[in-house]
Amino acid sequence: MHTFQTVPIEKLDMNPFEKIGKQWALVTAGDEKQCNTMTVSWGGVGVLWGKNVVYIFIRDSRYTKEFIDQGDTFSMAFLGEEYRQALSFCGAHSGRDTDKFAQAGLTLAFQNGIPYPDEAEMVFFCRKLAAVPVDKDTFTDPEILPKWYGDGDMHTMYVGEILQVFGR
Ligand SMILES: Cc1cc2nc3c(=O)[nH]c(=O)nc-3n(C[C@H](O)[C@H](O)[C@H](O)COP(=O)(O)O)c2cc1C
Description:
Blueprint: E1 5-6, H1 16-23, E2 25-30, E3 35-40, E4 43-48, E5 51-59, H2 63-70, E6 73-78, H3 84-90, H4 100-104, E7 108-111, E8 114-117, E9 122-133, H5 144-148, E10 155-167
Bound molecules: flavin mononucleotide.
């Protein structure tokens, strides 16, 4: 098990465009009995409803969505470049068919009951605040619907309050 330090949010030094969009992240949800992880590269960090938050976009078809919907919490974890293959794997296979932690060589750990990959270099532990379905009539730009939702597999935006940040 790695030793993490809790990082005060005001000490956080991150470029969300690089961190989420380029480095990617693993979103993990569930409990000690059953949980699942998946790769994400869409989302952000910010302030909503008076809280420091992350927001992620999860398509209806994702197995991970079932765990996010069932529980109150999830983690969003960032791993070093040496785990690129693991993230690619977790973004191309479903936990319905395989134990992704085992197959990707990741170690499942828990912080206050919230699952996360122990190999992470930084982890946001989050409490769900809102699940916002992205409807077909959401878009003011007419290009988005055909480009991203041609198959009808819509996203839900989950907003999570950042409860704790782990860093090294
Ligand atoms: C780089 C990358 C980024 C991804 N970003 C997202 C995302 O932001 N939202 C999403 O719903 N799926 C995203 N995916 C797809 C899921 O990770 C993928 O469908 C995964 O197999 C779902 O696993 P699950 O069914 O076990 O939940 C991404 C995949 C990759 C490779």
